[in-house]
Amino acid sequence: MPPRGRPTSPEARDRARTLAVRLRALDGGDARALAAARALVALEAGEAAEVVAALVDLAAQGDPVPVVAVVRALDRGAVLYEQRAALYEAAAARGLPEVAALLLAPAPRIAWEPPSDKPDPRLARLTLGHKKAMARSHGDPDLLARLAAEGEPVVVRELLRNPRLTEDFAVRLAARRPCRPETLRCLYEDRRWRARPRVAAALAHNPYAETEIALKLLPALAARDLPRLAEDGAVHALVRAAAARLLELREGPPRGGEDGEP
Asked: Are residues 14 and 93 in the same domain?
């Protein structure tokens, strides 16, 4: 059941459940993203906004796969700019901020500035190609940590493909501060690591990450992560507000009278 006062129609919730079944039956994130995009653009913007809201509700009930497919569709450009703009306007007009948040792309909470420290002497003499090869296949944890600390996005992408990379290492990279936004986006775009709850939570908490990334990760985060994000003064105000909204949707409205008064 949707939370009391939820501005989504029964028809939208039925469409969302049908779409969720179809998306779960597909094999692979790319196929799901394409199917989600086709379903959304086939609907009028207001209907599409309500369907996405209903998919967010499903994620709150423990089924994040469909809304993750929607996020992937928006990331991949499968939904045209004009269609995303119409979806945002419809979500805002219908009081669905958790849907509107998926379409926002504010700057990171803290701007990254190149460090004034001298480069790592062990890495300074290596070519970019050499660094990429080492990141992809080397097993020395100290060397991998040095490459991660340098934060060159093209090297980090190779590092994330290293079969010896552990989840703890990926979490530390996702939480690194300061860190280039482009480096953090590498983690977000890597399906292997983005799906790990600890990595996703660390990215959402990182004020150097693009705010868009945090907002798109929120619907699939574990319920235990939302209260911390809602109160994390280091993250963007939009992220705190979106986390609080999703927490409200999962826990339901306050107890008491219709206005929330005891």
From this structure: yes
Encoded tokens for 136 = 């992809």
Largest CA distance in the chain: 68
pTM, entire model? 0.83
Which stretches in the chain have pLDDT values below 50? Answer: 1, 3-5, 254-262
4 is a domain residue: no
> Is the same domain home to 42 and 76?
yes
Strand blocks (E) in the chain: none
Looking at the 3D structure of the chain, how many domains does it have?
2
pLDDT of residue 7: 65
Q: Which residues contact 181 (CB under 8 A, 6 or more apart)?
A: 108, 112, 208, 209, 210
**Domain encompassing residue 205:** 121-209
| The predicted structure's pLDDT at residue 124 | 82
For residues 26 and 155, give the distance between their C-alpha atoms in angstroms, rounded to a whole number.
32
